[in-house]
Amino acid sequence: MKRTATAVWNGSGKEGNGKLTTQSTTLQQAQYSYKSRFEEGVGTNPEELIAAAHSGCFSMKLSFVLGAAGFEPESIETTSAINFENGVIAGSHLTVKAKVPGISEEKFKECADDAKANCPVSKALNIPITLDASIG
User: Fold this and answer.
1) Measured between alpha carbons, how far is 118 from 21 in angstroms, rounded to an integer?
2) CA distance 132 to 28
3) Residue 110 in domain
4) Mean pLDDT, consecutive 10-residue segments, the chain of 136 residues?
5) CA–CA separation, 63 vs 35, rounded Å?
6) Distance of CA 4 to CAs 1, 21, 30, Å?
């Protein structure tokens, strides 16, 4: 299976702009620019998209890990904060809050650590990944 996305950039790095389109067209001509990446401009940026991919992948992997351990989550909410320093993606910090009936805090953290280590996006990222996991 392959998934694709296309980026078209026009102009210089600082004054130019680009459009991103994903295979599914969930993103279709989504705007990105210097301002959306390095300031607070309108549009997306690569780091935000990596954060979305990491949080989505981790949440789904955690659901599978919990299921294999005999638990069915009611909900899993994960935020990935990508640390972008001096032009380098330096880390991802995952914060997950989940509702999982019947699970202990210790077992949940064990499952969350497994998901962090084994979700495909975690494996693809060559950066430190930290995790705060809680149930409630």
Assistant:
1) 28
2) 33
3) yes
4) 96 96 96 94 95 98 98 98 94 98 98 98 96 94
5) 36
6) 10, 9, 15
Residue 59 sits in the same domain as residue 120: yes
Q: Quick one: pLDDT at residue 136?
A: 84
> Within a domain: residue 73?
yes
115 and 63, same domain (yes or no) = yes
Q: Whose CA is closest to 134, among 93, 87, 100?
A: 100
88-99, strands of its sheet edge to edge: 75-85, 88-99, 129-135
How confident is the model at residue 55, as a pLDDT? Answer: 98
What is the sign of the dihedral through the CA atoms of 16, 2, 92 and 98?
A: positive
pTM passes above 0.85:
yes
Domain that residue 96 falls in: 48-135
- The answer to whether residue 43 sits within a structural domain is no
